[in-house]
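Open question from group meeting: does this chain pack into something compact, or does most of it stay loose? Before anyone orders reagents, we agreed to write out a predicted structure and look at it together. Recording both the input and the output here so the notebook holds the full record.
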Amino acid sequence: MDYLEFKISCLDEFREILIAELSAIGFDSFLETEDGIDAYAEATAFDRGEFEEVIDKYLEIAQIQLSEGILPKTNWNEEWEKNYDPIAVDDLVYVRASFHTPAAGFSHEIVINPKMSFGTGHHATTFLMLRHQGEITHPGKRVLDVGSGTGILAIMAHLLGAEEVEAFDIDEWCVENGDENFELNGLATKMKLGTIREVKPEGKFDIILANINKNILLDEMHIYSELLPRDGLLLLSGFFESDIDDLNRHAADLQLSLLKSQTKDGWAALILRKE
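Structure tokens returned:
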């Protein structure tokens, strides 16, 4: 299966915005470069019309220049070694790849070899979700990770003491990569393939994690609410700070009340509680 490669030069402040916009239309891997980002999408799933809409939207204000190519789908560990640096979320967790040296001074460590998957902790939304996870109680809890990507949030739940963790993603490559990362971090579960409607999680979950995008969150939030018991917690991210009000209004209709919000680089994350 071939991948399309787009080398995008842009202003620094638009890197994260472009990553979010492109991930919402099917791009599933990104590398940050000196000039901008390299973005990758499966050729069979690529919608050129949607891609051109995103590029046209930011072409002038982000000073975009781009080139396009095709490459075979491969294991990209070598590319990640060139471009992926460890990250730290406060003193809570140090996220590194297997080829990095461990670091002292953190409560937890996560080893992620991301390959083609999205969610290394570098993006502001993943960073905020990890920080929020560190602020809530996990021991004895049942946790569901929606759109798990690399599995980083599921792994964090496991390290924080969750009794049971379930995770799924719509991309086969993410499922394969997530299972590898679970094994690296001692999480004895397997990632499922599909949307939440296809996977059909059973029972109640004390904590649900969903770092996706605004449209999917709005569409699926009623399902999350149904899966939460009273006082269950829903952690959301994947949207801009300007979207907080829309998410909160929809949440209120589903008996979900806001406990806390955080923002970083224009992105936002929420902790909601089921009333």
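Observations to bring back to the group:
The domain at 117-274 is CATH 3.40.50.150 (Rossmann fold).
The radius of gyration is 18 Å.
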